[in-house]
């Protein structure tokens, strides 16, 4: 693929993920978080397994070796994260949820430091503090001075919990031998099996679902669950994870733009908090360190791109 095609895939990938927050906000008024999660992944499986077979040939030997990790990933990333995300959208705005979620890369770096003993630079440590400050601005609606007395939005706190669940999911996924699309398909299948008795017990009246919510769940199944993941993995394979990771900052930007187009107001707390989160993630993930490393090379020495 040409570079512009890869960048286009990455833009579309993050645009579709942003739509998950916006459409999820509408769907949650008609369908419970459990049934959104269950229906999203049970139908996505019909696409994920053929795609996994086409790109990765479904290596059953590695799947058997990773079955415990894949089960944990299904419980955390497919069930836990999605239940928390859609529950959060019942109480907070799509923009707030996306901004809090933007803290994810920084949290992953910091938790990795504690678990592996990996050292980070002063810039990365400062970045984590910036990200944390940004999230606190969002959680307190700009009233950080009254941090302990603030009446926190339940949805924002649920989204913060989702960030930590996704961090655990991400760290587990690094230990896998199973290729990424196959791992998602298998962990999703395990999660669907785990959710089946609870979904059956809760039940759902499909006839009562309004067209907007039905369209929303179809969007969530096709685009964030299938298209975004395939586009992301094709891009990572082409240019590497570090370059693709920068594009994740587009998710809250796209979410805010779509939300404004649909009538949601953006507050100063969201604006300044979001900027602090973006700056913090940029620092924490080491992107600025890498930039300094490239620009500080002696004259005449080639700059090696990562």
Task: Kindly describe this structure.
Belongs to the EamA transporter family. It is a multi-pass membrane protein. It is found in: Cell membrane. InterPro entries: AA-Vitamin_Transporters (IPR050638), EamA_dom (IPR000620), EmrE-like (IPR037185). 76% of the residues lie in helices and 0% in strands. The chain is mainly alpha-helical and 306 residues long. The chain starts with a helix and ends in an 11-residue tail after the last helix. The C terminus is likely disordered.
Percent in strands: under 5%
The count of strands amounts to 0
Query: If you average the pLDDT, what whole number results?
Result: 84
Q: What oligomeric arrangement do these chains adopt?
A: single chain
End-to-end Cα distance: 18 Å
SSE succession: HHHHHHHHHHHHHH
Structurally, the number of domains stands at 1
**Unreliable stretches, pLDDT < 50, 5 or more residues?**
295-306
Radius of gyration over C-alpha positions, nearest whole angstrom: 20 Å
| Tally of contiguous helical segments | 14
Biggest beta sheet attributes: none
Tell me roughly what share of residues is in helical segments: over 70%
The computed structural class is: mainly alpha
General form: globular
Observed structural traits:
single chain, mainly alpha, 306 residues, disordered C terminus
Condensed summary:
76% of the residues lie in helices and 0% in strands.
List the helices and strands and how they pair.
Blueprint: H1 3-27, H2 33-56, H3 60-65, H4 67-88, H5 94-101, H6 104-116, H7 122-139, H8 154-173, H9 180-202, H10 211-239, H11 241-246, H12 250-261, H13 268-284, H14 287-295
Helix pairs in contact: 1-5, 1-10, 1-12, 2-4, 2-9, 2-10, 4-8, 4-9, 5-8, 5-12, 5-13, 6-8, 6-13, 7-13
